[in-house]
Known about the structure:
By secondary structure, this protein is an alpha+beta fold. It has helices spanning 11-18, 25-32, 36-40, 106-109, 112-129; strands at residues 20-23, 50-51, 62-72, 75-78, 133-144, 164-173, 175-177, 180-184, 190-193, 201-205, 209-213, 216-218, 224-234. The protein is built from five helices and 13 strands. Strands 1, 2, 3, 4, 5, 6, 10 and 13 form an eight-stranded antiparallel beta sheet that branches. 40% of the residues are buried. Mean pLDDT is 91; it is low at 91-95.
Amino acid sequence: MTPEFTPLEQVTDALQAQGWALLAPADVAALAGTPLAQLDALIPAWENLALDEYLKDGGRYRRRRHASFVQEGDALALSAHRAHWQPVEYNALHGGMHRMFAPVLPETIEQPGWQGLLTALGRVCTAARGTRTWYVEAHQFRIDTTDGIGRPTPEGAHRDGVDYVAVILVGRQGIKGGETRIFEADGPNGKRFTMTAPWTLLLLDDATVIHESTPIQPLGEHGHRDTLVITYRAGGFQDASEA
């Protein structure tokens, strides 16, 4: 289904009113303060991701890298590499596990498109929620059809246990499926659409909505779907001590 994009000037209002906003690629570049070409310069980094060895379904369809940051105002600082952890309440499949993924490469983090995008999204979160220190986790994902089918969200419809989640399409090749679905956490309404253009960005209020992406299948011999998922959380990174 065709996405209905949120005008850039209405992003904060949309987040507060309905719990999500969907931005077109040109508006994502404008938000990040970078030409679209600087975002495109990040795309080759998805050719060098490491296999996710924690999938409980035994699949080999997901590759990823992970990095953590702390954002104060416009200052974004890389944190020491750390394990990704979620409680089982938010991730019934992989919650409760300390998952140490390969780090995002320094040459990726140093690119102006990466810096501009993460910092700009932190400013949006502040505009919607007020001044905070944001604890940011960035995940590069490639879901492929090595197993015949790839599952972007094997845990199903879920929340992430943070304040805001950004899901950004980096690219898709030779696949069908991968539909994005958003549901009210405490209501009957939902939206469904397929992100097809690189740098389409979905921003979610994690307390208001739950989300999932449907499995992908190859159109030919092989295919894949690349995304960048960035989470923003006030008060600290998720940690097992909170359980």
